[in-house]
């Protein structure tokens, strides 16, 4: 592998890992704070991608689609938390698995009814539709760099919100000991709703950003969901920074796995997870 | 004779009569349901009795199905007495190996990790020459039951196959019932209700859980074997996480920790699939809606309904 193609694969790994982080960060927070296993989280990624498709075809620009789509996803998330998930907090994991599994079926069929089962493509915005020449034959698309940059900005913003704001303080406290937070007079239900809506919006945004390069297709959520589970397992439940590190590990393992061990490509990520389980069953970043 | 046993015998008698109707469509449908019922019972050993919520049980179902397809010669029949134990043994061994990893985790982790390992198994059959890609493999000739020229029954005959599957269902049911009455089974139930207490009583719970996991994998393998024989082909979809989700659904529908419930769950599931399927091609929408509603309004599954009716009759509508 020469340097230019190594650079391309590294950039691809970063972009894929950072995108997965957007999905997994919401998942890990919902696990950590609410103690809920949400199988439907991958559907939010799918919904985001389809929103991008529908809104781009009506407004004519992906940028507008994202501007409209993210608030829609936030509202949708808050609504779901109110209507369904808020009834699950005191139930056991099995019932959570069941309900969210049912939701996947509902979302996929609604998608099929409303938008159909065809694969759709979305054009890369003209502004970013170039590529950077790395060597005489190899070049790198600008849009992928844009995705990585947006993800980095979001990760920094998430860091700022969680570590530096009052809301973040409450989220961290809720992650640690929710009964105590309630006893201190903080409205934990409001925090649940905000965190859940945020998780939905991040996953949907990941789907919107990825839609021009991955295209939009049925069941696109389930693969992302399972990979996000792997990330949460590697990073440790409830740990956002664990999820970031694990997402990058998975991004690199998957991308370089495809290049170096093509016949094992689908499996590399899971083998990494098995190794982590042997070494630290609670995830790399779980304290104590 | 108590009422419960009588009900079970009536159920068995009805199942015995199905092929006599001569309706080959329904015989095949119920044969398929019986296979799923065996699969659901095997998972119930983990979910309902040991308290291990496995979301990757389809892996062992699929591994056994692929084992039959791979171990059978292309154009002649394999011996049933070889392929069946081999397929079941392989799925139990795979479960034993996976169990070594997944049983190091608990709770939500366990659910996610079993799912991830099933996905790994899915990719093994989807991507490597072992599985023949996404199209799967045909099992051209069903295994033969002949022993040294004598043929006790013929799996190519639909009625024989039906009774063979029904016999396996009864055997698995009796076997699991026996296991659960044994000291081993009592330990599993103890682990479900309080693992720490079992540990402090000196039980090495990891070994018990591992044994249960491998056993459930092997029994799930029986179902996978039968599935491959009934349908004559195997695809990676058998190991997909939808399959794992569906079987978990059957167990929960029937009420966990109840073997007859698991069988009933398989029937209700297939019934819903058939009924909703004739209404609309988007039947999964109704199915999903039913699941969501059931969790919200019907905790405890179908098996809890008789108890509720009884309580509301006795309590005269007062609070529980």
Automatic annotation (TrEMBL), chain A:
Q: What is its main location?
A: membrane
Q: Which UniProt keywords apply?
A: Amino-acid transport, Cell membrane, Membrane, Transmembrane, Transmembrane helix, Transport
Q: Where is the signal peptide?
A: none
Q: Which GO terms describe its biological process?
A: amino acid transport
Give the residue spans that cross the bilayer. Answer: 16-37, 49-80, 142-162, 190-213, 225-252, 259-279
Q: Which InterPro entries match?
A: ABC_transp_permease, BCAA_transport_permease
- What's the short name of a Pfam family annotated to this entry? BPD_transp_2
Q: Highest taxon of the source?
A: Bacteria
Location comes to: Cell membrane
Q: How does it sit in the membrane?
A: Multi-pass membrane protein
The answer to keyword Transmembrane applying to this record is yes
* MF annotations from Gene Ontology: transmembrane transporter activity
Query: What are the GO cellular component annotations?
Result: plasma membrane
Family in the record: Belongs to the binding-protein-dependent transport system permease family. LivHM subfamily.
Name-wise, this protein is Amino acid/amide ABC transporter membrane protein 1, HAAT family
Q: Specify the species.
A: Dechloromonas aromatica (strain RCB)
* Lineage of origin: Bacteria, Pseudomonadati, Pseudomonadota, Betaproteobacteria, Rhodocyclales
């Amino acid at each position: 592998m020469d340097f230019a193609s190594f650079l391309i694969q590294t950039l691809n790994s970063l972009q894929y890992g950072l995108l997965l982080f957007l999905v997994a960060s919401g998942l890990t927070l919902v696990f950590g704070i609410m103690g809920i296993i949400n199988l439907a989280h991958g559907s939010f990624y799918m919904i985001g991608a389809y929103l991008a498709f529908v809104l781009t075809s009506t407004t004519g620009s992906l940028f507008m689609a994202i501007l409209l789509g993210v608030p829609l996803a936030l509202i949708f998330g808050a609504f779901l938390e109110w209507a369904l998930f808020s009834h699950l907090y005191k139930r056991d994991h099995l019932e959570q698995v069941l309900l969210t599994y049912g939701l996947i079926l509902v979302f996929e069929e609604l998608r099929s009814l409303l938008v159909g089962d065809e694969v759709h493509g979305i054009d890369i915005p003209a502004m970013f539709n170039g590529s950077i020449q790395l060597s005489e034959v190899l070049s790198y698309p600008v849009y992928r760099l844009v995705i990585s940059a947006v993800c980095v900005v979001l990760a920094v913003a998430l860091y700022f919100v969680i570590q530096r704001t009052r809301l973040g303080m409450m989220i961290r406290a809720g992650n640690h000991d929710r009964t105590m937070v309630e006893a201190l007079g903080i409205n934990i239900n409001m925090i649940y709703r905000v965190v859940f809506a945020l998780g939905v919006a991040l996953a949907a945004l990941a789907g919107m950003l990825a839609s021009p390069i991955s295209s939009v297709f049925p069941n696109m959520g389930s693969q992302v969901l399972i990979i996000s589970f792997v990330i949460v397992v590697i990073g440790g439940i409830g740990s956002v920074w664990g999820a970031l590190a694990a997402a990058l590990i998975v991004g690199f393992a998957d991308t370089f796995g495809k290049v170096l061990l093509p016949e094992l490509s689908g499996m590399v990520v899971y083998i990494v997870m098995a190794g982590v389980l042997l070494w630290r069953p609670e995830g790399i970043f779980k304290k104590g | 004779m108590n009422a419960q046993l009588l009900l079970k015998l009536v159920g068995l008698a009805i199942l015995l009569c199905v092929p006599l109707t001569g309706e080959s469509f329904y015989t095949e449908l119920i044969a398929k349901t019986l296979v799923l019922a065996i699969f659901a019972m095997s998972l119930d050993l983990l979910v309902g009795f040991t308290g291990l919520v496995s979301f990757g049980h389809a892996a062992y179902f699929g591994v056994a199905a692929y084992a039959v397809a791979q171990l059978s010669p292309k154009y002649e029949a394999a011996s049933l007495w070889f392929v069946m134990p081999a397929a079941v043994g392989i799925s139990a061994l795979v479960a034993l190996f996976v169990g070594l990893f997944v049983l190091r985790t608990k709770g939500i982790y366990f659910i996610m990790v079993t799912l991830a390992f099933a996905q790994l198994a899915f990719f093994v059959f989807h991507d490597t020459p072992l599985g023949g890609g996404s199209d799967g493999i045909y099992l051209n000739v069903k295994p033969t039951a002949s022993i040294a020229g004598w043929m006790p029954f013929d799996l190519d005959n639909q009625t024989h196959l039906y009774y063979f599957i029904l016999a396996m269902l009864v055997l698995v049911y009796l076997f699991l019932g026996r296991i659960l009455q044994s000291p081993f089974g009592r330990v599993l139930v103890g682990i479900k209700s309080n693992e720490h207490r079992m540990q402090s009583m000196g039980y090495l719970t990891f070994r018990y859980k591992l044994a249960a996991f491998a056993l459930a994998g092997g029994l799930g393998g029986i179902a996978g074997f039968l599935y491959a024989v009934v349908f004559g082909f195997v695809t990676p979809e058998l190991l997909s996480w939808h399959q794992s989700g569906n079987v978990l659904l059957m167990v929960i529908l029937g009420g966990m920790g109840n073997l007859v419930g698991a069988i009933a769950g398989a029937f209700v599931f297939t019934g819903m699939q058939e009924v909703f399927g004739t209404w609309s091609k988007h039947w999964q929408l109704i199915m999903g809606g039913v699941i969501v509603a059931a969790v919200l309004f019907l905790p405890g599954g179908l098996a809890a309904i008789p108890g509720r009716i009884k309580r509301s009759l006795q309590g005269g509508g007062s609070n529980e």
